[in-house]
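Note to self: keep these together.
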Amino acid sequence: MKRIIAIAHNTFKETVRDRILYGLLIFALLLLPGSRLVIPLSIGQEVKIMKDFGFAAISLFGLMIAVVVGTSLVHKELDKRTIYVLVAKPVRRWELLIGKYVGLMATLLLAFVVMALVMAATVITLGGRVDRLLWLTILGLYLQLMAVTAVAIFFSTLASPALSAVFTICLFIVGTAADQLRLFAERMPGDLVKAMVKAASYMVPNLHLCNFRTEAVYGLPVEGQRILLMLLYIFLYTLLILLLSSVILEKKDLK
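Structure:
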């Protein structure tokens, strides 16, 4: 555990110093208050538009951080040969991978906290109310990226950062519509095709479970069971993906 914490700490410091991360975070902080320039076009709907716009911005820039940094974490160690130094020490490969993941999630958490506070302040200045649904929605967006970051690291153990980024973004898009994909599978002709599409819909992360944007914008109730299901699902899916990534990295030939 100490080795994982040490790797996570080093990864956090490394990613926080990354210029790409700072650029994305500054852009997001400028974008959220800047949305007020277009809000006057819809009189009476300012707070609703601000919330919807803010959630989309946080999700987008969180995804960019996860993809840009996550797909290069393991590959960078392999490309610079620094992994040889680490594995020569009493550090297992799976500890390296988990430590990298935890460090990146800590960086994402910091970015989310800053963006969430800016969004909350913007909503308040518009006369809106910062309620439990707003924080729940932001939590859901962060949990989405927990699964997506694990997927990004998984692909980074198999392919280059560019391909890993493409695969991760595609999976994110499909994952946000996993429920619709299952409904689409029922309408597919042929039992074989239907079974294949349905199986694929269960392999991608069901990110729709973490989406509370509609409820937050329109003040709709959220059942406690859905929140528990979201937490359990994301935890198990992330654990499974990290386990598969660890197995691949353990079997990877580093010579």
